[in-house]
Amino acid sequence: MKLHLDAQPFGYEFDVAKTALVIIDMQRDFVEPGGFGASLGNDVRPLQAIVPALQNLLHAWRQVGGFVVHTREGHRPDLSDCPPAKVNRGSPALRIGDEGPMGRVLIWGAAGHAIIPELAPASGELVVDKPGKGAFYGTYLNEALQVRGITHLLITGVTTEVCVQTTMREANDRGYECLLIEDATESYFPAFKQAVLDMVRAQGAIVGWTARSEQVIGALNLSTEEGARA
Q: DSSP 3-state assignment of 74?
């Protein structure tokens, strides 16, 4: 069954069976105090504020049997998959691979690399470990989506202007129809988030659409009610 949302800049239609909910990098290193995001001098509270909306959306998506993808940015312990330019960029209090309050920063298996408990992956959900900003670079995500017949992506997570936007543009180039969930994505910088929302839906959804989580949940609930009456 195709569902319709009054999205921006115009209506967005999707079939749950051909759509994946993508939750990008909701990791302790980005969302919690003491992580990599905080070491860059950022206030993590705006990122924490989207967790309830994401929980509600994730619950509703699971209830209808939708496919879920979680991503985690991180690197091998020897940093062989991390370019020196990435390690050295900026002036954070902690660099990638340094020992921090939650173990080595953005390193596989460290506590900070883990997805926050509130959004922990369930059995059968895909977890993609990515070495870069985009979820398609250096990963098997495209193949995993293709084998399942996925054509549409509902994109959420952090940060809006970096990993979220990069993933959305990568997906757009691969032919996926992408909807960015406005209240389920966030940046450390509000102006950057707004700029991304404006950019992706400009020029007739040149990169994709945007809508709010309650619109998606409402459409899912309506489809469930209609299915029950059928």
A: coil
Can you give the pLDDT at residue 107?
A: 97
User: What does the DSSP 8-state code read for residue 162?
Assistant: I
* Catalytic residue (choose from 25, 29, 183, 193): 25
Q: Copy the structure tokens of residue 102.
A: 């939650």
pLDDT, one tens digit per residue, over 134-177 is 999 999 999 999 999 999 999 999 999 999 999 999 999 999 99
Phi, psi of 3 (to 5 degrees): -110, 150
Look at the block and give the residue holding tokens 């993808």. Answer: 69
The Cα 125–Cα 58 span in angstroms is 11
Determine whether 163 is an active site residue. yes
Q: What is the DSSP string of 104-123?
A: ETTBTTSGGGSBPGGGPPPT
> Which of 82, 163, 178, 183 is an active site residue?
163
Provide the strand spans (E) within the chain: 2-5, 12-15, 19-24, 67-73, 99-100, 103-104, 126-130, 152-158, 177-186, 209-211
Alpha carbon distances (Å) from 130 to 106, 140, 151, 202? 11, 9, 21, 28
Q: 90, 78, 75, 80: which is closest to 39 by C-alpha?
A: 90
Catalytic residue among 29, 82, 130, 183: 130
